[in-house]
Amino acid sequence: MTRLLEEIKQYQSKFLQKAPVEKQRLMAEATAELAASGVAKGLGVGDTIPNFTLPDVSGELVAIETLLEQGPVILTFYRGGWCPYCNIELRAYEREIDRIRAQRATVVAISPETADFTEQTASKNALSFPVLSDVDLHVSRQFDLVFDFPDYLIEIYKASGLDVAKHNGNEDWQLPKPATFIIDVDGMIRFAEVSSDYTKRVDPEHILQNLE
To answer: How many domains does the chain have?
Structure first.
């Protein structure tokens, strides 16, 4: 088992030990409903991505076209810095960043969080790659990743003290599914993984194999 998958397994084990059974049941139910709904299937291999520009943690605008001029881009959409699975995944990419750059590739992480929260995520995980803020989910929608929280899940999150709406700067209670893409220099998707289960993440080792 890779380090990323081991870290996820350890976190899940702690969650299952501590979280109330009813909370676990409802969260699992929401995941199953999302998978069954057919919503937000995401772009796939062979699709051409939309051109987009988003602000990074310092407010500088980053254009995907500019990054693709340097080589392939690994694009990972994450839910937010409040999500433990997202932080585990982002740190895993940072651990492998030298190997990724040796393949002339760039990692780019995108979430719907406002700039302040995006900056916090990049800082606490010591990330050296671009972390972009897709407020109102314009780009996530173009990648067909956006879904609505069911009302009962919103209540669970609020009861846990987690205000996703505050992090996202709106009251929509929408998120992108966790997704990872390898984008070729011509803008075509060469690898795509989109999951309805927020605990499932692609290991950077698998991404590196696809790059090589």
So the answer is: 1
Which residues lie below 8 Å from residue 96, measured CB to CB, with a gap of 6+? 204, 205, 208
Burial 154-163 (b: 16+ CB within 10 A, else e): eebbeeeeee
Q: Tell me, what CATH number does 55's domain have?
A: 3.40.30.10
pTM of model > 0.85:
yes
Domain that holds residue 133: 3-211
User: How confident is the model over 82-136, as pLDDT tens digits?
Assistant: 999 999 999 999 999 999 999 999 999 999 999 999 999 999 999 999 999 999 9
- pLDDT tens for 59-79 read 999 999 999 999 999 999 999
Cα four-point dihedral sign 37, 16, 90, 154 = positive
| Pick from 5, 85, 70: nearest CA to 111 | 85
